């Protein structure tokens, strides 16, 4: 396949050019236009018509629900939505049924995902009480990282006991394995919940508008700060998932290149979105954990992406049936299926170069995918094409996720995406 008349975007920067693949790896890359020598009769020749062509984007935080929650979604179905969204590789979270908290469950989930996903697929290992005995069974390449839920979340996975949490972190440091944390403080959330129930009279009466006050910025900061202190003490590489607050970005994260940091961070399109930051625009379809915060938080997160305090963007794609999303702050399910339209949505308010960096090279640097993120000869033939288009409105008839809805329904976009996946093995 030869793609020409493209704007190439990768670690090297942005330039007009072309590339060629053999289906497994990139075989040629050039500036300007290809010469007749580069064209062969058996090539599939694609005129990109000035579109952006970049390394296949990686979504390093998805919940594809399988095994055990197939009524919400399947790996096969959600990976097709990922491809439509320009994503060529996904890293799947462990809170399924059974949870991915044993080596055997991890091996089975990877086997399932690699057999059925339209994208490259890898599963995170979830550390819960007793995790040390399971970590000893893991083999190199089994998982991109160890996930720890330091606060309650959908799936109700428990954190390792405090007495063993440090051992888990030291094991990760010794094995150069990133520790990905969901950081929210349960005590603060419990106190805020009790106050809200008292104010409104019952759990069912607490409106969804209270969600970001219950799962507050203080709850995020306190838990994340404790995780950062533990990372510095143990030498583990801590990656804080779905940063949602300006406080975390200002107080816990360092500017600059990702490589060499002890603490790196991820945020999501729904926390960055200026429109969703206005709570008047949110409803129960936008209820996610941690909660979407304020316009000031969203602005600071966008600034933190630009100056390097935040290293990656991931969707936290988490399908639920619409019936499960009914109710208020304490009864509607948390999570939203955003992967199909996330990249075009990001381009409403971020430069394409920044989005590509945070979803390719940034992910590569956090999860040690060697030098992935450059369109270079010998690199995997995972290619994302991002095309400017006439404005269009997200409609439910366009949605590929089996749950049939999106938090972005009704929003106006001006880019479309497609992805080509290398035939070679999954990223390690």
Notable traits:
14 helices, six-stranded parallel sheet, 30% helix, seven-stranded mixed sheet, 16 strands, alpha/beta
Characterise this structure.
- The protein has helices at 75-84, 103-116, 131-135, 162-174, 186-200, 211-214, 217-234, 246-252, 269-272, 274-277, 295-307, 342-346, 352-359, 361-367, and strands spanning 2-10, 13-21, 26-31, 45-47, 52-55, 57-62, 87-92, 120-123, 125-126, 146-149, 179-182, 238-240, 263-267, 312-313, 383-393, 412-420.
- It is of the alpha/beta class and 428 residues long.
- The strands form three sheets. Strands 1, 2, 3, 4, 5, 15 and 16 form a seven-stranded mixed sheet that branches. Strands 9-10-11-12-13-14 form a six-stranded parallel sheet.
- Helix 1 links the parallel strand 6 and strand 7 (87-92).
- Helix 7 (217-234) packs parallel to helix 8 (246-252) and helix 13 (352-359) runs parallel beside helix 14 (361-367).
- 53% of the residues are buried.
- The mean pLDDT is 95.
How much helicity do the residues have? 25-40%
Q: Rounded to an integer, what's the Rg over CA atoms?
A: 21 Å
Order of helices and strands: EEEEEEHEHEEHEHEHHHEHEHHHEHHHEE
Low-pLDDT sequence parts:
none
- Termini separation: 24 Å
The total count of helices amounts to 14
Compute the average pLDDT. 95
The main sheet comes to: 7 strands, mixed
Please outline the helices and strands:
Layout: E1 2-10, E2 13-21, E3 26-31, E4 45-47, E5 52-55, E6 57-62, H1 75-84, E7 87-92, H2 103-116, E8 120-123, E9 125-126, H3 131-135, E10 146-149, H4 162-174, E11 179-182, H5 186-200, H6 211-214, H7 217-234, E12 238-240, H8 246-252, E13 263-267, H9 269-272, H10 274-277, H11 295-307, E14 312-313, H12 342-346, H13 352-359, H14 361-367, E15 383-393, E16 412-420
Parallel strand pairs: 1-4, 1-5, 6-7, 7-8, 9-10, 10-11, 11-12, 12-13, 13-14
Antiparallel strand pairs: 1-2, 2-3, 5-15, 15-16
Helix pairs in contact: 7-8, 8-11, 13-14
